[in-house]
Amino acid sequence: MFCRSILIAAFLPALVFPVHAQNTAPDNKRQRELVHMVRQDCGSCHGLTLQGGLGPALTPAALRGKPSEGLVATIVHGRPGTPMPPFRGLLDESEAAWVVERLVEGFPADGGPAPTQQTVGAR
Amino acid sequence: MLLLSACASQQPVVLRGTGDLGVVVERATGQLQVIETTHRRALAQVSGLGDLSHASVVFSRDSRYAYVFGRDGGLTKVDLLTATIANRVVQAGNAIGGAISQDGRILVAQNYEPGGIKAFDAGTLELLADVPATYGPDGKRSKVVGLADLPGNRFVYSLFDANEIRVTDLSDPGHPKTERYPSGKQPYDALVTPDGRYYIAGLFGEDGLSMLDLWHPELGVRTILPGYGRGEQALPVYKMPHLRGWAVAAGRAYLPAIGRHEVLVVELGSWKEVARIPVKSQPVFVMARPDGREVWVNFAFPDNGWVQVIDTIQNSIVDTLQPGRAILHMEFAPKGEEVWVSARDDNKVVIYGTAKRDKRAELPAASPSGIFFTSRAFRTGF
């Protein structure tokens, strides 16, 4: 967490201007978390293969011609009137921009959940 | 000599029943585990089932075959005794699940793309009927959700995009007959009560649920639990809840609220609100133990490491468990003494005794999601 705040602070000027997300790319562990989240949990509606489900497909072909800013805003703020919820609080704008860049170029395979402390309780 | 060697290479034949069998969906690898509940063990693995994200399963009436409906439109008939694929077709581009008819002869798939239902011969998987979910003046097709079997080889389902409930009679599969009922906004899933009488559709687009009395369809759809959100700002829904007949316990339905961290309790028939029970997060599966004395609840991302247990006399939480990371599904043993819980991100299935909620076993499974036992074969709405 500490490292991430430093990173974000260091690149704060980049956020003021149109974002080039590679400047604020999340660290490796966070990237793995984001890929897992998109594949598995966004996948509840968009499909594990991102070919769509209740939500639309998120493949490069499906996203072609859609402005990145709009896609980032959809992730962060959701889309009122549709089941797309806001993800702010779960990822920040630069992370959403990183996700959009990956989606547009063809989303990476899931490397599994980030290795964290097991949250399993005693029972 | 020849005969002898032929005999020696044959597999030993072990006779067994199928009443304690089931399957665990390993969705990341597109495989099924065939499991056995008596000794809490995996028997075999079956591959080649396509995209199993959001896979669901129904069983043949002899409970020998599992029919697996995959997200990619694949419909696979798996022989549980030999752990092999008996038949497979790809019937749509994007599918969400299926149902089997009262007489066990007809399978019906519910599809997002192209929107509608399709009926298949349960023996051969040959297409029997294609019923598009067409609506509006320009003939658009709606995503279909909430499919359930009804007595008389009829099927009931909801149209997410068209705000409608439809009942299709497949008693003569060559000539399907469909009745249409306007419903509330954006039905996302639905259930039929175990007697096949009440169909209740959860609504994403409004606070309330749509109920159709199938013994009195002429009365049309009625809204139950209207305005349960009391006009408050809805919380984000990171996963749509799932509804089935398991919601019914002690003469009441236990229903996930949408955008509220509550389980809503309504009395069947009078449709009076009995209680609203605060829970940890957005409920996804709200499942009664088969005796109806308890209801187990899991939750949407990012709070999906928790399971809570509701006592149906007090209508309050009596236990909170953390079985593992990303709890996607639960399945009770037919008489409810144990429950199997899938922990996707810990690659395991956890088995609890329900009387003391003690952990009895863990089985390894690759990214497990749905767990389905053959006892579903004998239940309407499963």
User: Residue-averaged pLDDT of chain A, rounded?
Assistant: 82
Question: What is the gyration radius of chain A calculated from CA atoms?
Answer: 15 Å
Number of extended strands of chain B: 34
Total of DSSP H or I helical runs spanning 4+ residues of chain B: 1
- Residue windows where pLDDT falls under 50 for at least 5 positions of chain A: 1-22, 118-123
Main sheet overview of chain A: none
Helical fraction of chain A equals 40-55%
Report the order of strands and helices of chain A: HHHHHH
Largest sheet of chain B: 4 strands, antiparallel
Description:
- The complex is a heterodimer of chains A (123) and B (382).
- By secondary structure, chain A is mainly α.
- Chain A is built from 6 helices and no strands.
- Chain A is globular and about 35 Å long.
- The two termini of chain A are 28 Å apart.
- Mean pLDDT of chain A is 82; it is low at 1-22 and 118-123.
- Chain B has 382 residues and is mainly beta.
- Helices cover 2% and strands 49% of the residues of chain B.
- In chain B, strand 32 (348-353) and strand 33 (359-364) form a beta hairpin.
- Chain B is globular, with a radius of gyration of 21 Å.
- The chains are: A mainly alpha (123), B mainly beta (382).
- Chain A binds chain B through residues 36-37, 40-41, 43-45, 47-49, 51-54, 78, 83, 85-87, 90, 110, 112-113, 118-121, 123, and chain B through 27-28, 51, 53-54, 71-72, 94, 96, 112-113, 143, 145, 160, 186, 188, 204, 236-240, 301-302, 305, 321-326, 344-346, 357-359.
